[in-house]
Amino acid sequence: MLLEEKPSVRSFLDSPEEAGEEFPDWYKSSRSDAWMTFQEIDWPKRSDEAWRFANLKKLSHEELYDAKEVECNDIDRLVASSLSLEENAGQIFFVNDRVVTSPSLDEDFSKKGIIFKPLSQALIDHSELVQKYFMTQDPCLGSAKYAALHRARLRNGFFFYVPDGVSLTVPVEVFHWVSGNSASIFPHSLIVAGAGSSAMIAEYVTSIDDEISFCCGVSDIHGEENSKLTYLRAQNLSEKAQSIHLLSTRAALNSKIKTFNLDLGCEWVRNESVSRLVGEGASSETLAVSVPEKSQEFDMRTLQLHEQPNTSSNLLYKNTLYDDSKTTFAGMIVVEDEAHHTDAYQTCRNLLMSNTCEANSMPGLEIKADQVKCSHGATSNPVSEDELFYLQTRGINESSARQLLTFGFVKEAVDRIGNDSLEEVVLGKLERRFNKIGKR
Amino acid sequence: MSKLEIKDLYASVNGTEILNGLSLSVPMGEVHAIMGPNGSGKSTLAKVMAGHQDYEVVSGEVLLDGKNLLGMEVDERSREGLFLAFQYPAEIPGVSNANFLRAARQSRLPDGEEIDAVAFYQEMYEKMAKLGIDKKFTGRSVNEGFSGGEKKRNEVLQMMMLEPKYAVLDETDSGLDIDALKIVAQGVNAMRSEDRGFLVITHYQRLLEYIVPDHVHVLYDGRIIRSGPKELALELEEKGYDWLKEGELVKN
Q1: What ipTM was predicted for this assembly?
Q2: In chain B, which residue's Cα lies nearest the Cα of A389?
Q3: Cα–Cα distances in angstroms (integers) from residue A290 to residues A10, A254, A263, A372, A440, in the given order
Q4: A145-172 confidence digits (pLDDT tens)
Q5: What is the CATH number of the domain that holds B22?
């Protein structure tokens, strides 16, 4: 049954949940407005261009509810079970969108004015600053209804603000865990790098159990002039989970924003990524790796939007598909009238590990300016027989050889993160994943 | 006696017969060269021995110290002691040379046993130094962006690390300038021992000036039509292959 045919009698879809009294008025009205917007917008249909190839049958909100507060008295064990950074500048832990242990931030950094705290707290402590950046980027890739749902129902998330000229050389980390059957979370990530600042951040979204869950997250990243930001997000929810993640980046004059998205878990994933280059000389690098198996479906839509001259963007998505899994990649580069001397690249590569997996790629370009260098490309291939043979002639058995080659395939994207400790975390997660698949 | 023995081998690719009753024996401790014109079956022989799936063995045997290799998987043949140095080594993006060699060494250990990483790296660096390979190559993807000479040196490095009983070098001299050729030959010569046999496949006599063989075989139309001492290579260089081909015709 298609989604739009269902009446919207779903627990968390039934009625709005108003913001608490402690929150600023602008936020309260934003929340109630969002609920109205959510109700006005139609559910996505497969006939919508933005949802072409999407299997909406898998996206069911039946019997989903806001995740309940759960007891968590063993945060150390949870952290230990997740691969994370050896060294961090600060950490925030959420279970079911509730902060479960006191957030930390290195004292040296907090003295420099860095803000790294749960969004619920930041809304009260830094209302004006949050308001300036909160949900300012229009979702334009098909999920406006989910963006409204997120805004109407979000419970928490984090605000990370790096003041002008401050450099954070060690990444901060945010952990989200989901627990309980049919639990839904709406994590919000708001990241702002002030002029001339630099920072790195890693965010992990993970299930504690094997239950059905739903994650509807938004990550908004703002790089002010001459700033430099690297954002890593690793999703490893349960095999029964569904996830919608809306990522947007806004890069101002000469700023650099790099994002890396790793998707391993979930039955169904929809990722939308919008990179806006709003200042001259701005650049963005949008990287993603996914390793779907069984009947997992990952749907990725991207936009690189060049609004100013001398901007550059580079997108690389690498998917390794096993079994009956399916990926859809629809990428668009738009170069606006003014954006002369743009460099824009978009590549999606799929490695097909079975005869029954399916990789759909729809790369696109729309160029309105002159003197522009743009390229886009998509490939889908099985493991190279020549490479496999070569490894085997050195004594490596077929299964290990395939594992080495798949690892090598995704490593190209990981290497581009450009930070050893972040790369190590991602490679560790991938290694676990490939080992698990290799041992089936 | 220990030897690598090819017995009356017939093999085809895409239905075309390439090897027609090839027989050859390389005793351990010796270096044998196979020379032959283009299309005689040199590279096919190398691929068949290693077990490439595109080549179909119609009949015959390849015995490594008496064990039939043809019934084994590609990787088993390697672990049994056969090494093939490729004419055109594959490039493997994203897999570092060090990880690759480590996996190859690991494959030789029993389940549950891990290689000693410190000793492994030390050995690898020593062997790289002998071949004039820069340390930074350990972190680079296997053969990716390597020059022809670097690729061939990398083949020899793998051979040094895997210490095979028998090594088949397929046109190792192709694409090498004289300096690279010397380094590669030095590496091979350093590996020559009583406990190892070599089958050097080459189109030109040049390589055999640096890797001096004990015996030379001439491959033509999928079988050995002449075997002789190392001087046979010089004779081939001087006269070409035609005089042998004519002899072959007369014999037929």
Answers
A1: 0.95
A2: B52
A3: 30, 30, 5, 30, 19
A4: 999 999 999 999 999 999 999 999 999 9
A5: 3.40.50.300
